[in-house]
Amino acid sequence: MAKDETTVSERVTTQAAFSIGPYEVSDELRPRIDELGLGDAVEHFRKHGYAIIREASPPSLMDELREAIHTLSKKSEDDDRGVRESAVLLLGRHPAVDRVATLPKIMAFAEFSVGKAMRGGRFVGSIKRDGDDGLNLHADQNWIPTPFPEHNLLVTFCFACEGMTEAGGSTCVVPESHLMRRTPTADEVDGAQSVPIETEKGDVAVWDGAIWHGSYPRKIPGTRTVLHATYQRLYTQPIDDFTYLLKDEAYMATAPEGMRQLLGADLFFHTATPEQDTDMEKFAYAVAASKL
Ligand SMILES: [Fe+2]
User: Fold this and answer.
1) Cα 135 to ligand 1 centroid, rounded to whole Å
2) Which uninterrupted H or E stretch holds 121?
3) Which end of the chain has fewer beta carbons closer than 10 Å to its terminal beta carbon, N or C?
């Protein structure tokens, strides 16, 4: 029987036997990682739990993103975080957001970190001004029971539209804390030694779902305008629901390549109906993609 004549169940059985290990790059992805010059960032991420992807975006696109975030942000206040200036659910609401979310270096790095069938989770813009507080250390996948699985479940990209410095309220990380595979204790939140992630405009910081990180207060004039974009492994529930975009034909017709991936268009979830059971072609794709 020719390869393309195998049944879905035969393909599923064959594919289920193989999986790459945690933090490995699949043979399928390796050429893209090399072509995009991401090898050093991948190595740094694997060892330290975070990395800086240099020149991930044209600086002009960061200007457009900054404008979008400043236009769409609203002020809010809560007991935990005080006054915040932010915009949530940004995917599909501004072309600049969609373009940065699907940049080639971002899509390739997300695939490395959370797998071939990864989906978009959160797209949140925020503005930090002179005098604004920092954020306590935490792990982004903090609703996952510990010990965290060895395969990373969630990866966060931080697009700092103006670049970011320690004095300007940059992100901070506790290098290699992802190896603990748990959230920090209260003592560690106060006492763990963090280092700043400083970036130039157009660079993108990226960190593992298990790494302990936070941010510093801003002590200088001006703004730190960032988009936090989160991508999740196939089997985790995306934090925010953007699937309504798949039903918007006019939007999908002009959406960037990569948007179907972020929205899980090829996955088998929710495909069963009273008349027709789960889409088995999509199931077979998920079985294969979940191992890469
Ligand atoms: Fe975080």
Assistant:
1) 8
2) strand 119-129
3) N
Percent with pLDDT over 70 in the chain: 97
| Cα 18 to ligand 1 centre (Å) | 32
Q: Is 90 exceeded by the pLDDT of residue 195?
A: yes
Of 136, 132, 110, 112, nearest in space to 123 by CA: 110
Q: Measured in angstroms, how far is the CA atom of residue 211 from the centroid of ligand 1?
A: 9
How close is the Cα of 122 to the center of ligand 1, in Å? Answer: 11
CB atoms within 5 A of ion ligand 1 belong to: 140
Domain count of the chain? 1
pLDDT of residue 79: 72
Mean pLDDT for the chain overall: 95
CA atoms within 13 A on the CB side of 70: 15
- Over 90: is that where the pLDDT of 109 sits? yes
Q: The dihedral of CA 265, 62, 172, 240: what is its sign?
A: negative
Enter the pTM of the model: 0.95
Whole-number Å distance, alpha carbon 94 to ligand 1 midpoint, is: 23
> Looking at the predicted structure, is the pLDDT value of residue 252 above 80?
yes
Q: Which domain holds residue 238?
A: 22-264
Q: What CATH number did the domain enclosing 86 receive?
A: 2.60.120.620
269 assigned to some structural domain: no
Asked, for residue 99, whether it belongs to a domain, the answer is yes
Residue 226 is assigned to a structural domain of this protein: yes
Containing H/E element for 83?
strand 82-87
Residue at 290 is within a domain: no
Q: Residue 280 pLDDT more than 90? A: yes
